[in-house]
Amino acid sequence: LTVPEGSTIVDIDKKLAEIGVIPSGDFIAATKAFNNYDQYPFLQREQHQNLIHPLEGFLFPDTYFLDAQAFNSNALIETMLNNFSDKISTLENDQTRDLFEVITMASIIEKEVRTSKDLPIVAGILWKRLDEDWQLGADATLLYLKADRSINAADLAEDSPYNTRKN
Questions:
Q1: Which pLDDT tens digit goes with each residue over 96-144?
Q2: Tens digits of per-residue pLDDT, 43-79?
Q3: What angle do CA 152, 133, 5 make, to 5 degrees?
Q4: pLDDT at residue 153, as a whole number
Q5: Closest C-alpha among 104, 79, 89 to residue 162
Q6: What is the 3-state secondary structure of the chain?
Q7: Listed residue (75, 61, 76, 153) closest to 106, CA to CA
């Protein structure tokens, strides 16, 4: 199973169902039922459990080798979290931002920006807005609520925690 960067939990669930190792929705349900937060110091139960898709952004994109006969969504979640843990252990620790905030911003930027050359520009703008306590105004956050990956005027008017034009 290859999980590209930017894949959501819904994307991973869809891929697993397409290759026939789970019924559709099983991986999503497993992330919602995940309760092993104490094993991963980079996860804060309170932050994750309030999300529509807990663990979003913390399941490391990579290629995973699966045994279709013995496949278990919980085991894949733990493998992906262990991979995330291994990768972040080599990073320099930025004391000014907590990891949840950095991963959340990275996820927003990844959906908001089309070209790699624009990444640092948009990141700078969004961090400045956050630091100044302004609304982020990143429409891509609404994509986490949408199955069809399109945003319309009604979505932009919706009062949701994922509408960064309002919240």
A1: 888 888 888 988 898 888 888 999 999 999 999 999 999 999 988 888 7
A2: 988 888 888 889 999 999 999 999 999 999 999 999 9
A3: 55
A4: 87
A5: 104
A6: CECCCCCCHHHHHHHHHHCCCCCCCHHHHHHHHCCCHHHCCCCCHHHHHCCCCCCCCCCCCCECCCCHHHCCHHHHHHHHHHHHHHHHCCCCCCCCCCHHHHHHHHHHHHHHCCCHHHHHHHHHHHHHHHHCCCCCCCHHHHHHHCCCCCCCHHHHHCCCCCCCCCC
A7: 61
What is the phi-psi region of residue 25: left when phi exceeds 0, alpha when psi lies from -120 to 50, beta otherwise? left
* Residues present in the chain in total: 167
Listed in sequence order, the residues at least 6 apart from 107 whose beta carbon sits closer than 8 Å to its beta carbon are 56, 57
Amino acid in position 60 = F
- CA distances, 164 to each of 7, 8, 11, 121, 124 (Å): 21, 19, 23, 18, 16
Cβ-based neighbours of 98, under 8 Å, separated by 6 or more: none
